[in-house]
Design a protein that fits this description.
By secondary structure, this protein is of the alpha+beta class. It has 16 helices and 20 strands. The strands form 4 sheets. Strands 2, 9, 10, 11, 12, 13, 14, 15, 16, 17 and 18 form an 11-stranded mixed β-sheet that branches. α9 runs antiparallel to α11 and α15 packs antiparallel against α16. The longest helix is centred in the C-terminal third of the chain and has 18 residues.
C-alpha cells in the first residue's frame, strides 16, 4: 500500500491573528493588503458543477480547496486532505481530511461534504458540464447516465474525516483530477439551507483561502481572507479583487496605470512594446493548451470530411504564430500539445510535413471533389469566436486565406467569452467556431476524450467515430503505459485524419505581473492561487 503525507502539519492561527480577526482595539492598526487581478471575462458561474472555463477556475480555486491542489509551481500537493493511501492494485484511495480543515462559517469540512458534492456532480438531473472528470470513480458514468442510483457512486465517508474512493480501474492521473474545479467541495449544510443560491455573496460558504464578499457582475468581484482556512496564518494577502476585463486594450491600460497588480491575457501585438517597457513583468509561459477551430459536423458542408480537411489545410499556421501572435504561439497540427508526460510526440495531421503551397493545391483538389469552388457550388462560411483582439485577428486572417484559396464568402460573428462557450456547450448550430483547451491534468486522454461520442458538453463538433471511441475505451483498461500511449496515438491519428477539429496553435499563457507581486511562478498548469502570493510595498 502506497501512502502520501503532507510535509507540513496544519498551521493554526497565531494569537495575534485571532485578535486581529476579532477586531480588538489593543492591537496596532495594519494596512490591508490588496491584490488586484485582471481576469479575461465575466465568469458564467461560481457553481462547481457548472464551471468550464479558466477565468472561472482562477476564482473558484481561491474560494475552494479540493482534496489535492496545485502549489505555486503547478505541482500536485495535499489540499483539504493532509494524506492518503492507495491500495496495491491502485483502485482504492483513502483520504485523511485535515482536522483543521474548516468552512468559512467555522464548521468542519467533512468526508460527507465530498460525498455529497461528487454525487451532485454525477446526478443526471444536475446536468454538470464536467461530470466526466469524475468518471474514473466506480459507477460514476452509470450514475451520471441514470442507470444506477446516486448511492452507488464508489465513495463513502468512513468517518467524519476519512474518505474512501474506489475507482473503476487504476487511473494514474487521479490525484490531478481531484484538483480540478469540478472536484471542489461545497458545504452540504449550506446547500441544504440555500439551494441554488449557495453561490451568492453572503451565502457562499467556502473552504479555500478566501471568502466571497461582493460580486458586481461585469465590474468586479471581491474576496476577503478566510480566517478559518487551515493555512490562514501563511496567507499574506487580505483582499483579492478580480476585474472581468474582456477588453484587452483597456486591461493593459489599467495595468500600466497601476490599477492592476496582475492581468491575465493581452493582445499579442503588444508583446514587443510591453517587453521593452516592463521587461520581466511580461510573462510568456509554456502551457499544455491547444488553440483550434471546430467544424459542426451535423450540417452540410461541414459533415463532409473533404471540406473539413480542405479548410484545415488552407490555414497557414506559420503566419498565425509569427504575425498574429508575434512568435508567442507555435504552429500546431496535432490536437494533443507537445511535452505531455508519457505521451511523446503527438500524432499530427498527414499534411503537416508539406509545404503550405502544396497543402493549398491538395485543398483545392479536395474541395473540387466535394463539389465546391471553380465550376462548382459557391462556398459560404461563418466563423464564430469569443470577443478578443487576438481571436478577431486570427478569424480575419483565416477568412482571408479561405477567400484567397477557395473564393469563399466568409463572415464573422463574435460573442463574449461566457456566451460563446455556453452556445457551444448547449449544442447551438454553427459552421466554424474558435475554441481552446487547456489541460485539466497532464495526460493526452484529457484532450482526446472530449471528442468522444459520449462527451455531450465538449464535443462541440458533435463528431462520432466508432473506431475512435473504441480505442479510447480500450485505453482505459490498458495498464501498460507504453501500450496505453500507443492506443491514444492511434485515436489521435483518426481525429487528425477526420479533422472535426483543426488545431492551429500550441499555446503559451500571457500574463502581466507587477514587481510588487512576490511568489509568482510560471507553470504549465497555469495555477496561481492568490494565497501563495504576497505584496511588496
Amino acid at each position: 500500500m502506497r501512502s502520501f503525507r503532507a510535509s507540513r502539519l496544519a498551521t493554526f492561527l497565531s494569537a495575534t491573528a485571532i485578535l486581529a480577526v476579532t477586531g480588538l482595539t489593543a492591537l496596532p492598526a495594519f494596512a490591508e493588503t490588496v491584490l488586484r487581478r485582471g481576469n479575461a471575462g465575466e465568469p458564467q458561474t461560481f457553481d462547481q458543477a457548472h464551471t468550464s472555463i479558466n477565468i472561472e477556475t482562477f476564482v473558484l480555486k481561491d474560494l475552494y480547496e479540493g482534496l489535492t491542489i496545485y502549489d505555486a509551481t503547478g505541482t500536485i500537493v495535499p489540499g483539504a486532505a493532509e494524506s492518503w493511501t492507495v491500495s496495491d492494485d491502485g483502485t482504492v484511495y483513502t483520504f485523511k481530511i485535515r482536522d483543521a480543515a474548516k468552512w468559512s462559517d467555522g464548521s468542519d469540512v467533512t468526508a460527507e461534504d465530498f460525498v455529497f458534492s461528487y454525487r451532485r456532480v454525477e446526478n443526471p438531473a444536475e446536468a454538470a458540464n464536467y461530470a466526466n472528470i469524475l468518471y474514473p470513480i466506480k459507477n460514476a458514468e452509470k450514475v451520471n447516465k441514470g442507470s444506477l442510483p446516486l448511492d452507488q457512486l464508489g465513495m463513502r465517508a468512513v468517518d467524519a474525516k476519512t474518505l474512501e474512493i474506489t475507482l473503476e480501474r487504476p487511473t494514474p492521473f487521479f490525484l490531478e483530477l481531484l484538483a480540478h474545479q469540478t472536484a471542489l467541495p461545497i458545504s452540504k449544510a449550506s446547500f441544504e439551507t440555500n439551494g441554488a443560491e449557495f453561490i451568492k455573496p453572503g451565502k457562499l460558504v467556502s473552504n479555500g483561502g478566501y471568502m466571497l464578499t461582493e460580486h458586481v457582475a461585469n465590474d468586479h468581484l471581491t474576496m476577503a481572507k478566510n480566517p478559518n482556512h487551515w493555512d490562514a496564518a501563511n496567507t499574506k494577502i487580505d483582499k483579492v479583487i478580480f476585474y472581468p476585463l474582456e477588453d484587452q486594450a483597456a486591461a493593459v491600460r489599467r495595468y500600466e496605470a497601476g490599477e492592476l497588480d496582475v492581468n491575465y491575457n493581452f493582445s499579442a501585438d503588444q508583446i514587443k512594446r510591453l517587453q521593452e517597457q516592463y521587461g520581466s513583468e511580461v510573462h510568456i509561459s509554456p502551457a499544455l493548451a491547444t488553440y483550434y477551430y471546430v467544424f459542426d459536423t451535423r450540417t452540410a458542408p461541414m459533415d463532409d470530411v473533404r471540406v473539413r480537411r480542405a479548410l484545415s489545410m488552407a490555414i497557414d499556421r506559420d503566419f498565425l504564430g509569427r504575425e498574429i501572435y508575434a512568435g508567442s504561439q507555435q504552429p500546431s497540427y496535432s490536437f494533443v500539445p507537445p511535452d505531455l508526460p508519457g505521451y511523446g510526440e503527438p500524432s499530427k495531421a498527414d499534411f503537416a510535413a508539406k509545404d503550405q503551397l502544396d497543402r493549398e493545391d491538395d485543398a483545392l483538389a479536395l474541395m473540387k471533389d466535394a463539389g465546391f469552388g471553380e465550376g462548382g457550388k459557391p462556398l459560404s462560411i461563418e466563423i464564430r469566436y469569443n470577443t478578443n483582439p487576438n481571436h478577431e485577428r486570427v478569424a480575419t486572417a483565416v477568412a482571408d486565406m479561405w477567400k484567397t484559396v477557395f473564393g469563399a464568402s466568409v463572415s464573422l460573428v463574435n460573442l463574449d467569452v461566457s456566451s460563446h462557450y455556453a452556445y457551444l456547450q448547449e449544442g447551438g448550430a454553427f459552421q466554424v467556431a474558435r475554441a481552446g483547451w487547456t489541460a485539466d491534468y497532464g495526460d493526452a486522454e484529457n484532450f482526446l476524450a472530449m471528442n468522444t461520442t459520449a462527451n455531450k458538453s465538449f464535443n462541440y463538433a458533435k463528431w462520432s467515430n466508432a473506431d475512435f471511441d473504441a480505442l479510447m475505451a480500450k485505453s482505459y483498461d490498458e495498464r501498460d503505459p507504453a501500450a496505453r500511449a500507443k492506443l491514444l496515438h492511434e485515436a489521435e491519428a483518426i481525429l487528425m485524419q477526420e479533422q472535426p477539429v483543426a488545431p492551429l496553435l500550441a499555446q503559451n499563457e500571457l500574463w502581466l505581473v507587477s514587481k510588487r507581486v512576490q511568489g509568482w511562478q510560471d507553470n504549465a498548469n497555469n495555477a496561481h492561487l492568490s494565497r501563495f502570493l504576497s505584496i511588496a510595498e
